[in-house]
Design a protein that fits this description.
Layout (H helix, E strand, L loop, with lengths): L21 E13 L4 E11 L2 E6 L8 E8 L2 E14 L5 E10 L1 H16 L1
Antiparallel strand pairs: 1-2, 1-4, 2-3, 3-6, 4-5, 5-6
């Protein structure tokens, strides 16, 4: 089973278990918010899994906003489209943003899965 043996990370805003496990990470992410209030910024992914990621953003991106994401993982760029599902202020003044993937190709999913297995092995 995908993610079997990987530590599940829960956040206080998620009342039920996630469908996909996530792992801690420090990946660079280029974010392009899609829509009338377009915005681009570099951010850091703090957690990642096959279903999405949690990023640390300099400002709120807006719940239900759609994003084009370019995530750097082990010198590869993973491209995905996601939707902001939650936001909360972080202790350092940034905003923690939960993003669910709505479109990602299988090769990029495999790159994320490889990172998860690598983290689980260490």
């Amino acid at each position: 089973m995908v993610g079997e043996g990987l530590e599940m990370i829960e956040d206080e805003l998620t009342p039920t278990r996630r469908q996909f496990p996530r792992i801690p990470t420090e990946n660079v992410v280029m974010i392009h918010r899609i829509g009338p209030a377009e915005q681009q910024e570099m951010a850091t992914a703090r957690q990642i899994g096959l279903g999405g990621l949690m990023i640390s953003s300099v400002e709120p991106l807006g719940v239900d906003s759609y994003l084009r994401l370019k995530i750097t993982i082990d010198n590869e760029v993973v491209e995905a489209t996601g939707r902001v599902v939650w936001e909360k202020p972080a202790d350092d003044g940034s905003t923690d943003v939960g993003v669910a993937f709505i479109s990602i190709d299988s090769a990029h999913s495999d790159t994320i899965l490889a990172q998860m297995w690598q983290a689980d092995a260490s």
